[in-house]
Design goal:
Blueprint lengths: L1 H6 L1 H18 L2 H19 L4 H20 L15 H19 L2 H6 L9 H19 L1 H14 L5 H20 L6 H10 L3 H27 L17 H29 L3 H20 L2 H17 L2 H17 L4 H10 L5 H17 L4 H12 L8 H14 L8 H10 L3 H25 L2
């Protein structure tokens, strides 16, 4: 019975989230309540398919939410109204696989990853090459690019000693992943922060991109120096296809052009219809991907890959459904009590020392990631806590630190998806990956904090 439900989760999720999106345009009180009611069984159905860590987080959030809800003296029948505030994020995640699919349908991922395999004499050069390709792909296909790059490197480095191979892969792929997503409009942390702070994405973009490139270049310089004494011999498992630099450059240019058009469409639609950033991106992803597939004459591949990928990813969203719906109940209940003001006190008391506030945000992310709390759960609480500071500090500064702090944990979160995936792919201890990348995470966070401080 449970297996049959898990295979049809994409139908359940899509129906509920479609109702929610429709209601955002018609603003029906009845439909709002119905969607909230449906969110409750949606949460419980997802609970049994979620990982242990997310079930624990969900239970913690729900337990505290119930305590706060009862403390606030709110009637039980209003619970559904407190369950929907994070549904835009779930809708966003549901449609994101279609953007990944168009990149795969156009075979951009295969061609760009071929850059790793040609004319490399030492690991220093391979590091820069593989970091660059992972960076480009992560900007478009997010987590899928991480697995793809690691698979290519595992194959190409099969002749290397395991210790060197593990160190190399856990550095180059995780670090490129983190700095690539820090400015991507398809990264959920970026979308959440843009909407929470009320600052335009275009205001963030140059500073996030500057931070990304600066940290990436520092990593390239230091890692090239670290690995350039180790010679590299490509594995003979598979003969690499001869790359064509002009073709690769052309496809990278096409990806960047497509991303630019995507951003223009998202911002234009958001401004014209007065929509928040997350909803704008959500509404644009599918028609934009389809239009791109038609222009490339790859729409059959797009639908074949997209439909399969979408069903698989949507059926595997239990972790995020549990996290987001329980977080919505918790944050909405917290807003109805005086406890929120108590949590805000340390931040409000430091308004005369804004640098301390920015550092405190970074430290909060780092500590919470080390004990297994997902950065989205952390940012969900920080958004409520930091809101009063927007009137006394530049919200752009706060947003910069919220984004960089969250993405820096992608390289060190022991129980996070990225570190866990890397640990499984390379068969190494996740704590070793964390220790190896901790200096980078601190550097990334420090650069983000410095830029945020200069923007005050």
């Amino acid at each position: 019975m449970r297996g049959a439900i898990n295979q049809r989760l994409y139908v359940i999720y899509s129906a509920i989230l479609s109702l929610f999106i429709i209601n955002m345009f018609i603003s029906s009180n009845v439909l709002t309540y119905i969607v909230g009611l449906l969110a409750i069984p949606m949460l419980f159905i997802s609970f049994w398919g979620a990982n242990k860590l997310f079930r624990i987080l969900g239970c913690v959030f729900i337990s505290f939410a119930l305590i706060l809800f009862i403390y606030a003296g709110l009637p039980i029948y209003e619970i559904p109204l407190y369950m929907t505030s994070t549904m835009p994020l779930l809708a966003f995640l549901t449609l994101l696989p279609w953007m990944n699919s168009i990149v795969r349908a156009g075979r951009f991922d295969r061609r760009i990853n071929e850059v790793m395999k040609e004319n490399v004499s030492d690991l220093g050069k391979l590091y820069v090459r593989s970091s660059f390709t992972t960076y480009i792909l992560c900007s478009f296909i997010n987590l899928s690019a991480l697995s793809l790059s690691q698979d290519v490197l595992l194959e190409n480095m099969s002749k290397m000693k395991k210790k060197i191979k593990d160190s190399f892969i856990s550095r180059t792929t995780l670090r490129a992943f983190a700095v690539a997503l820090v400015w991507s409009p398809m990264e959920i942390i970026v979308a959440i922060t843009v909407d929470a702070t009320g600052v335009s994405y275009l205001s963030y973009l140059p500073w996030l991109f500057l931070c990304s490139i600066f940290v990436l270049l520092i990593d390239w310089l230091s890692s090239n120096k670290r690995f350039n004494t180790i010679s590299y011999e490509v594995s003979s498992v598979r003969r690499p296809r001869e790359i064509q630099p002009k073709q690769i450059a052309k496809q990278i240019a096409q990806l960047l052009f497509a991303l630019t058009i995507f951003l223009v469409v998202v911002v234009s639609i958001g401004n014209y219809f007065d929509l928040n950033f997350i909803l704008s991106v959500t509404l644009v992803i599918l028609p934009f991907s389809f239009g791109w597939a038609v222009m490339m004459k790859r729409w059959r591949s797009f639908f074949a890959i997209g439909w399969s990928t979408w069903k698989q990813r949507t059926n595997s969203m239990q972790n995020f459904v549990v996290l987001f719906l329980s977080l919505a109940f918790f944050s909405s209940s917290l807003n109805e009590t005086p406890f929120l003001q108590l949590i805000q006190q340390p931040f409000l008391a430091s308004t005369e020392r804004p640098l301390m506030i920015l550092v405190l945000i970074q430290v909060t992310y780092l500590v919470m990631s080390m004990i297994g709390v997902h950065p989205i759960a952390t940012i969900g609480v920080l958004i409520e806590v930091l809101q009063p500071l927007y009137s006394v500090m530049n919200p752009l500064s706060i947003g910069m630190v919220m984004i960089t702090g969250a993405l820096a944990t992608a390289t060190v979160g022991v129980y996070g998806v990225t570190v866990t995936m890397t640990s499984m792919n390379t068969k190494q201890n996740p704590y070793r990956i964390t220790l190896r990348n901790l200096p980078f995470a601190l550097l990334f966070g420090a650069v983000g904090t410095l830029i945020g401080f200069l923007l005050l």
